[in-house]
Amino acid sequence: MPCRVMNVGGCTVIACGRSGFSPCSTPGCRNRSSKLCDYPVVRNGQPGTCDAKICDRCATNVGPDKDFCRPHAKLANMPGGQHG
Which of 2, 52, 54, 74 has the CB geometry, 3.0–4.6 Å to 59, for a possible disulfide? Predict the structure, then answer.
C-alpha cells in the first residue's frame, strides 16, 4: 500500500491506503471514517486504544479529541452507545 508522510497540526502522520477512502467500521454505515476509537485496550501486553475507524455520525465524543466507537460507548455506558 502506498503511504504518505504528512504534517497535521505540528504532528508527523503516516497515512497508508489504496484509495484514500477508509469506511466507518460501524455495521451498516457507509460513511467515510474521520476518527479512530480511543477506548483503552491492551494488545500483546501493551496498552493502546481500540483504533476502530469511525465517522463523525457514529462516534461518541467522550472528551476533548477523544471518541469511542458504538460498541465501546455502550460498554462504557455512554449515551452514544445506544444507537441502533
Answer: 54
Give the model confidence (pLDDT) of 58-68 as tens digits.
999 999 999 99
**Contacts from 54-59 at CB under 8 Å and sequence distance 24+?**
54/24, 54/25, 54/26, 55/24, 55/26, 55/29, 55/31, 56/31, 57/24, 57/29, 57/31, 58/24, 58/26, 58/29, 58/31, 58/83, 59/35
Please tell me whether the overall predicted TM-score, pTM, comes out greater than 0.85 for this model. no
DSSP letters of 7-44?
EETTEEEEEE-SSS--B--STT--SBP-EE---EEEET
Give the integer Cα–Cα distance in Å for 17 and 31. 17
